[in-house]
Amino acid sequence: xxxxxxxxxxxxxxxxxxxxxxxxxNTKKPVAQPIAQPTEAPYTTYIGGAGLVEASNDNISIxxxxxxxxQAVFVKVGDRARAGQALFQIDDREQRADLAVKQGDLAKxxxxxxxxxxxxxxxxxxxxxxxxxxxxxxxxxxxxxxQNAAALGDAxxxxxxxxxxYAKASLATTQSALERLTVRAPMAGEILQxxxxxxxxxxxxxxxxxxxxxxxxxxxxxxxxxxxxxxxRFKPNxxxxxxxxxxxxxxxxxxxxxxxxxxxPKVSLTGSSSERxxxxxxxxxxxxxxxxxxxxxxxxxxxxxxxxENAGGQK
Length: 315
Known about the structure:
The chain is built from 3 helices and 14 strands.
């Protein structure tokens, strides 16, 4: 008899629990606030693109023409380098030993030349004594021998001079190789990166991580990628504004510098869900004073470029 009385109670508790769960599931969750507010375009019609900050003379990747173990690094990040200043040096002990050998070869060749010149002078004087002799004072055979000796002396001088020229060229080749082991700054600028240290092996060729980066930061550039679908809307010398990522309040108007008319594959991906890896972009360069924006070389920025009203609608 107790069982029929318990069933209504259990059913009632289940109904109360189901109602509570339903009410709780219908409660609206608070909308998550973004860490940083997205940037808003300051123009009615515009093109938006991601920009990469770089030095005004581009970010120069420093490499070496000869591979080897790094012997010394003469600069550090942030140093100002003048044109021609030594940046780092490859181990040059083998080339210096070869240089000493080539210097010895040159000295030997020059000594041989002096010997040939002395011999030439002697044979020439011996022949000069008899070449105008008349009568039977000197035999024809003796005259011929002295003439041949003088000609041989001339040939030895020519050979010795050729050996000296060869030794000088060989020495110059070794000196050139030795000089190339010291990597120097191609222009004045600031050291942006140092990715090589003494004892490490420096390889030649195009490296994914360059041995060093050099650039001038007095005037900075922003390389903006414009999607090829929007390239037709772009007009040079229109207004453009760059925003600092993470703080949309930090911004500055930038000046048009140049456009690189060759459309290239996009390499600076933003992570957008609509972005394709096969996207091709038109790269436009804008310049700005370093003091106007607190940015670093290599930093990404959001750039908006104004377009004429009749060039298309808002992006």
